[in-house]
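Study this pair:
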Amino acid sequence: MQNTDSESIFVKAKQFSFLFYLLKWLLLSTLIGLLAGTASAFFLVSLDWLTNWRENHLWIIAFLPLAGLAIGLSYHYWGSDVVKGNNLILEEFHSPTKVIPLKMAPLVLLGTLATHLFGGSAGREGTAVQMGAAISDQFSKFFRLNENDRKTLLIIGISAGFAAVFGTPLAGAVFALEVLVLKKFKTDAVFPSLIAAFIADFTCLAWNVTHSTYHIPMVPDLGISNLLWAIFAGIVFGLCAWFFSTSMHLWTNLFKKWIKYAPLRPMIGGIFIALAVYFMGHTKYIGLGIPIIESAFSEDLNSYDFLLKILFTSFTIGAGFKGGEVTPLFFIGATLGNALVWFVPLPVALLAGMGLAAVFSGATNTPIACTIMGMELFGVESAVFIGIACIVSYFFSGHHGIYSSQSKSQFKKIIYDRLKLRI
């Protein structure tokens, strides 16, 4: 009789613990999703308006060096503890020291808007992720959460920011788990991450924010020949991701080596970017480049577009301007896929879609999230081709991605050692 009573108490305690877990993370995920979704909506609307204004007033690009100086000074005097951006979030996840300062959100927001208004080449995911993480981490202080729960909060913040800015909640949830936890998947964070991602996406849509849409009208049968071409394309996309990551770290190190006073780095970088835009006579390779991404699915583009976008974006980020790398990676991957159509016998829209997801996969070491993102953006019909490209790109993109503080994948290292790959 005593054993039965003990078992009953144990079962009830376990049920109560599970119910408490659900209620706690449902509440926190909903709150963070609402806040991050609203912040991302404001950011996207502002970014769209500023981009349109810049394109109608191109003279403002001449003031990019001054904007760079302002960004550099703001981080030098007020944001030295958050200047690492996404890398700070990764470091706090793996080696927690203190709550991420809330000032990270307004600093990166204003810095990114200034970067785009005055003509830098950057993305937007970094801003949304940093805002989401900075907002979510404040709850660890208010609720006095332990270290494990704080890690879950950071995952929630990243998933909410990513989902809201791209309109891909499933990919956002998995991206947060995958980019932070390469060694061991954090299963207890799956539910909160999914809830936050969907709430953030719905919140962003409720503010009448629209996302870019892409269409792959034809997907060929997956025969042996097409499979081999997909693998080949994945290798090319992976090498491209490696080249982008290497270029970005190269420019960052060069600026730090030759310009010791940090606020001068984006100012001097801005001079070169503004002059390059002036002499080229167009703004094709600055900003997000969404019109070019959309064109890559149906039109013939220059075969060198992806190379120039790599140069502009890696130089912009390396100089110290703010934003992100993902949308430029979309540009690079889609235009590279567009160029591959000349000798890869796959439909141009499919190659552009494969490149969009696969270069992102290789640069961030997130093949699962990128495959899911491809299905959310293009439909499940192209899932096999997208998945092959993302996985192959992941293995051919080298040990390091765009996030220098990202924990290395042990599985990837084992494969490299077995195959003696030294990319």
The domain at 7-206 is CATH 1.10.3080.10 (Clc chloride channel). The chain has a mean pLDDT of 90.
